[in-house]
Amino acid sequence: MMKFKGTHTRCAVAVAAACFSSAAMSNDSVTLQVQPSQMVQGGTGLIQTPTSRMGEEGDLFINYTDNQEYRFWSVNLQLYDWMQATARYTDVRTRLYSDVPSFSGDQTLKDKGLDVKFRLLKEGFYFPEVSLGFRDFGGTGFFESEYVTASKAWGPFDFHLGLGWGYMGTADDITNPFCKLKDSYCDRPAGYSGRGGKVDYQQFFKGPMAVFGGIEYQTPWEPLRLKLEYEGNNYTNDRAGALEQDTRFNIGAVYRWKGFDFSANYQRGNTFGFGVTYHFNMNTAKQVKIDKPPRDIVQSKPAAGVDSVNKRRLYRDLAFDGGFILSDASIEEDKAIFYGNQIAYRDKNEAAERIGRIAASELPESVKSYHIVENAGRLPLVDTVIDADAFKVAAKYENIEADIKQTYTRQAPEDNVLDKYDPEKTSGLFHSVDFFYTQTFGNPEDFYLYQGGLILSGGYAINQNWTAISSIRATLFDNFDKFSFTVDQDTSTLPRVRTYVREYVENDLWVDTAFMQWNDSLGNDFFAQAYGGYLETMYGGAGGEVLWRPVDSSLAFGVDVNYVKQRDYDDQFSFLDYTAFTGHISAYWEPEFLDDTMLTVSAGQFLAKDKGVNIDFAKRFDSGIVVGAYAAFTDVSSEEYGEGSFTKGFYISVPLDLFTLKPAKGRGTFPWIPISRDGGQMLRRPARLIDFTNARSSFLD
User: Fold this and answer.
1) How much is the average pLDDT of 130-138?
2) What CATH architecture applies to the domain 7-281?
3) How far is CA 509 from CA 40, 119, 512, 566, in A?
4) In the CATH scheme, what architecture does the domain 306-418 have?
5) What CA–CA distance (Å, rounded) separates 360 from 196?
6) C-alpha to C-alpha distance for 658 and 210, rounded to whole angstroms
7) pLDDT at position 191, please?
8) What secondary structure does DSSP assign to 631-659, as a single string?
9) For residue 280, what are the β-bridge partners?
10) Does residue 527 contact residue 694 with C-beta atoms inside 8 Å?
């Protein structure tokens, strides 16, 4: 039986219970008039405490808050409608980063934190919304907490009540029920395991426990919301030192203007705080396009016969109106086959419809099928087969129930299609210019370091299978000159396969890659490649890969094997003594129970010759933005690995299409690696078959 301690707690519980009861009697109880907002540490909540509320799937909140002793920078993401995650940096103004001036100067202490929250129960007519959350669950655990919270709406009010352990339970006004079941739950272990960065499951739901909650009110003036909060932390064991708390009640206000929230609060009866949040949704994010609509074929006059087709106009329109650059074509009496590369429309349905409309307006009625064979380089990968008659009915709106998407199928190119593929030109020069931007947070020299510039790429296609490729990285601006700490004195015994990164980035002009590549289709949905040369910034060598990937399959499997040698950071055309075999067996899976999600599991040997598995999770939103996280677990112990305990990282992949006025393909990827150590490190192969064969899948649409 739980025992309540303290008058304030009894009042808070009684008020919340009365509010829940009243809310259940209202027909409007599940209509949320108060839109969720961010709390101080990031994540939907009141001021210092979370609520059960979730945002809409794809919501991204970027937050900055200032609370006198602490400053917080956080990013909160609604991955699914039932799951929310927060990444946070904390600046502790009362403490230095280290006691060694030559290492970190006068920089104040910075700490990383990760939170996650899961909705257990949706709000209903009688029942509140209920969520379970874990705050700062990995690493040093400045604010480590577990909590269960419930929320119930009633008109312009939203009522919240929760139970917290750890940081949010230090007020200790409720007896921990788990303590009655097992003595080990009565006290919470101090500190953290390993070298930080690990999830300390053994601490969950242990130690003191407290109640928290509050009320949000949507004022008649739409931009303004008010908050009243009762928190469960007593601030006696804070990282900034013991903080004075005159009351457990906090008050605050949030003003919303367009995509921004501006907040102000008064905490602990003695501290003012403020913050700003920028919000957008990654499902609905888009860029206005200056583009022609798909061709109207109602008034079109196709050619009378195959011989009278204006091929020059047809091929030009496929390029300019359909974004499809031909490498070959075959037009017969009953079918037309177009081989090429889609360079503009990343949405496969839009690309197929545009090309189908162009073909229908130019080709004679005798042509009953259009084959759009999309290549990677000059290698045919997937054949979109359009039923011409059914397509025309749908495109002309002759049947209101007709769906253009149902008039075509995607499949592997059949032999009779491949036999007609005979491109006139399979060799030639190519080049590109890309912008790169690298950033890193929480460094001892400076909190934020950055580097930007151009990647100049080019090469020569020898034939359909062989290509010579190179890329040069030219730094145009950076503050990496502050990277003064280049000697890694950590206790790790692993070979330094990645921790020389600071030595490499000091070079303003660097040949990132220069290699020969061969690739081909082996039939039956198998693909293969081999490569050799300077493979990435830090390694050269040779390797190969085989991939099985059916068209639009939720599963793919691959194997790669590589022999590499570490490049000399002082002379980019020379090598150091370190060599290694590295390679992995990989499975790529898009599970049906997780919408628009890809899980990649790669097992094998890493660059430091440690063995284990790397798990990558990627979530795609409707805009094409992909958010991902990965972690590697190997036979290296936390002590051998060093600070961080194991390799982990995050990334966001953004389609170029979101920044251009014209349709475009291509992506930019922005990584965030909290701590880069030497264990669990994979070779950054210059070409991966899973990327090369992307046309076979819809994941990166």
Assistant:
1) 92
2) Beta Barrel (2.40)
3) 42, 49, 9, 18
4) 2-Layer Sandwich (3.30)
5) 62
6) 46
7) 64
8) EEEES--HHHH-TTSSEEEEEEEEEGGGG
9) 60
10) no
Both tokens assigned to 458: 């080019």
Nearest C-alpha neighbor of 391 from the set 373, 375, 371, 377: 371
First-last CA distance in the chain? 54
Q: Is the pLDDT of residue 386 over 90?
A: yes
Measured CA to CA, the distance from residue 630 to residue 616 in angstroms comes to: 4
Where exactly does CATH 3.30.300 map onto the chain?
A: 306-418
Cβ(181)–Cβ(53) below 8 Å: no
Tens-place pLDDT, residues 572-595: 999 999 999 999 999 999 999 999
Within the chain, all domains assigned CATH 2.40.160.40 are found at: 7-281
Give the pair of three-digit tokens for residue 119. Answer: 């909705």
**Residues with Cβ < 8 Å from 160, sequence gap 6 or more?**
16, 46, 49, 51, 52, 149, 150, 151, 213, 214, 215, 216
* Tokens 């206000």 -> residue: 253
CA 632 to each of CA 357, 385, 496, 606, 641: distance values in angstroms, whole numbers, following the listed order = 47, 41, 17, 10, 11
Is residue 19 within a helix (H) or strand (E), and if so which, with residue range?
helix 7-24
Pair 614, 646: CB distance under 8 Å? no
Q: Which of 536, 389, 554, 380 is nearest to 473 (CA)?
A: 536
Measured distance CA(507)–CA(572) in Å, rounded: 9
The pLDDT tens digits of the residues spanning 136-154 come to 987 677 889 999 999 999 9
Residue for token pair 């303004």 = 224
Beta-sheet strands, E only, within 81-197: 83-96, 108-121, 129-135, 145-154, 157-166
Classified by CATH at the fold level, domain 428-696 comes out as Porin (2.40.160)
Q: How far is CA 515 from CA 468, 539, 547, in A?
A: 6, 12, 20
Neighbour-count burial of 384, counting CB atoms closer than 10 A to its CB (0-12 exposed, 13-18 middle, 19+ buried): buried
SS3 511: strand
Q: Which of 174, 150, 118 shows the shortest CA–CA distance to 20?
A: 150
Alpha helices in 396-550 (DSSP H): 415-418, 501-505
The first and second tokens of residue 457, run together, are 């790429």
Provide the 3-class DSSP secondary structure of residue 53. Answer: coil
